[in-house]
Specification:
The protein contains nine helices and 55 strands. With about 950 residues, the protein is mainly beta. The strands form five sheets. The protein has a 31-stranded antiparallel beta sheet that branches. It has a six-stranded antiparallel beta barrel with strand order 6-7-12-13-11-10. Strands 8-9 form a two-stranded antiparallel ribbon. Helix 1 crosses helix 2. The longest helix has 19 residues.
Length: about 950
Amino acid sequence: MRLKYLLSAAAVLLFAQMLLGSGATLAVPFSIPADSVSRIEMAPSDPETGDSIKTPASRRERRLQARAARQEARRIQSPDTLARTDTLARAAGTDSLAADTVRRDTVRKPRAAKGFLDDPLDGKSTDSLVYDVRNKLVYIYNQGDVTYQSRNLKADYIQIDMNTKLVYAYGKPDSVDGVWTVTKPEFTEGGTAYKMDTITYNLDSQKAKIKGVATQQGDGWLVGGSVKKMPDNTFNIEHGKYTTCDQTDCPHFYLAMTKAKVIPGKKVVTGPAYLVMEDVPIYFLGIPEGFFPINMGPKSGLLMPSYGEESTKGFFLRDLGYYFTLGDYADLAIRGGFYTLGSWEASAASRYIKRYKYSGSFNIQFSNIKTGEKGEPDYIKQNNFRVQWTHSQDTKANPGSTFSASVNFATSGYNRYSATSLDDILSTQTNSSISYSKNWAGTPFSLSANMAISQNSQNQSISVTLPTVVFNVSRIYPFKRKERIGKERWYEKISMQYTGKMTNSVTTTESEIFSKKTLDNMKNGIEHSIPVSASFNLFNYINVTPSFNYTEKWYFKKQEYEWNPLTNQTDTLPSDYGFYRLYNYTTSVSASTTLYGMYDFTKKRRDRKIQAIRHTITPSIGFSFAPDFSNPSYGYYLTRQTDSTGRFTTYSPYAINAYGVPSSGKSMSLNFSLSQNLEMKVLSKRDTSGVKKIKLIDELRLSGSYNFLADSMKLSTISLSFRTTLFKNFGINLSATIDPYRVTPQGVRYDKLFFPGRITSTGWSFGYTFKSRDDRSQPAMNDITSLPPEYSNPFYDPYGTMDPVLRRQYMAQSYYDFSLPWNFGFNYAVNYSVAYVNNGTTGYRKNITQTVSFNGSLNITPKTGITFQGGYDIKANKLTTSSISISRDLHCWQMSFSWIPFGYHKSWSFNIGVKAASLADLKYDKTQSMYDNMY
């Protein structure tokens, strides 16, 4: 009976070995329900035999295999009977034959099989996974997902051949909303995804043969009819396409390539190629060979020029240059251009950035302008330049200190003859500043320094401040006890501050900025200011604040004048350099309180819409005193003769310095102000409290002063201001100055008050923006609420940090948001002023200016938008410089037309081009320059 079981077990073991081969492992369910996810895990096996499959054994088979294994182990461990009875072997214990026999009779353990693959292969699907044991094939259906090492393949049908190690995949037909489509396999390797019609991939050699592949490279798409993938991840393409249109099945345009080689992330090299637009081949735009960089990081390269014609300068080719990458943190673009009538220009622009440290840009432009014929009145020859620099420091880089720069310096002729943007042309005032600040944590000390330049291109004046340094000690309480016991004493409320300032400034013209005269006219000085004050509460309702202020000025030159009887005019004496100390002091005391008045409408009915009105009044009164520093004992003022009649006037030889001189004449003034606001409380269902506060008047303020020691006209002018908010984001600001004294027909004020006075100046402005949505997530040229971009092309991305899919949505210069239906904004400003003149009647002349400015955008179709901006001068009764632009979205292209219809800057431009940055030079431009209207 025992022999019978042994024979049965041996037969089962022999059958299993014949069926399964060697003992490699693969656990695969033959069928899986459609609503489950099946998985396949392939362990390493012998690559020569290909035996890598071991089907799951039944319970009976496993029991028989275990029994046979135990019996075989017992047979191996039992002593050999022949060896026990062989007396010859016992006599010769060292007989090598006996030893060899034992070794030969021993059953050796089988060697571990080599793997079918180097790493596990993992797979899953949502339908079923079928394994053909006999042919060693695996079939995966519906949303199959197979991963091997860093490669992943997704398809609705995948076939894996264990013998040849080939993976074959294709899609399946499907319908979405009644439209039939064919799904495509997606192969991912090294972070790059490829979509294709079919793929045959060799797991061993890592080669692939692909039909109908489409892959994104940079901001473009590569489409190949027949493609071979090589082990080094390069691609050889036959009958391929390169396009920036994401409709890869039928792109609006593409570059048809007869053959090409693609090095992913670096470049595409093509053979003969030609342009195809809307399936129409344009052979005359073909190229014998091509090179396209597709790497996303910094890269050096040629900058393509723009061309055109200006009637005053001739045909031009400009912006031709080269782009350099300067390491990982900076770049440089050098450009140049020339005109056929003799003008030329050059520029260099650089940007730098170090994350969490600083960022900035530097731009310098130079132009040599020649227009007209030499000897003619309209002949112009001049050199212009502009220097721009911006720098900002991250607040975390150096806590306690900051450095920033905003420099925009240009010659006066640059905006008129060399600028190419409307904003630069219309600008008449430019400002530049460089600043540094430092504060010491835990101390009251702080330091700031600033250099500034202001230019006016109309009169060519320049105001320079080099530099202004301010050292400040914040408010301290020198008499306050460190550990207070009991109530605070009155002297503990005394506080003091210190501010020290140093400056050096001059106002000159462009032609004289580096002359000795400019150096002599510099205004400089040092000023120290120490205010001392305290605050007390009187009768629990009145706040009383006494104060004393001491100011001292240090100057290094003075300028005196002398009457010359020979020439009958005043001569300016040479400046007297030295150290001069001037000081002054003032004292004051002020008192203020707040009064409230309320009228309650709910005393009779609590359901009234208006619940209450509250009126708040804040009166303030102050008294100040300053001595007469024109007294000869101070030495701050001198007298000089002004004409041949012997009239004299008082002047200060220190007035030419930066911080002026102490005031002349004794002053004892009463300062007063009255501020009030009006609020209303109404019922509101939207508020959780059931009521809502509305401000009817934000502030209505009146202020002035009265000098008791003045010889005449002791009352100052009265200042009025009014501010209110009518509704959300719409308010009115009004300010006015009232002169309470009368004026003679000769325009001279005299000491006679009249009511209500004369308005000498007032200004009023208001504006509002109407928009179809509040989203400001993306700046756009048609969103008037967007912040202006820092650069002319805010989406220029030399460091490759922008998503290529996002990049293709932008034009080469700006982005038009077609999802913004409309927006409109306007601003109205009126200014009124009075100038006292000798007109023989009223003694003054009125001047009123009114301007209206507007801008906005409107989408007239889902893909066509209009933007506009302009203004109207009511006094001159004419429109100011206005412009209108039309943009049309052509999917992967964009077309735009800009027009300035009238005025000094009348011009127009037309552009149609590819949106993607990689093909930004595939465009057509036509312009009429504004410079054509200058002569």
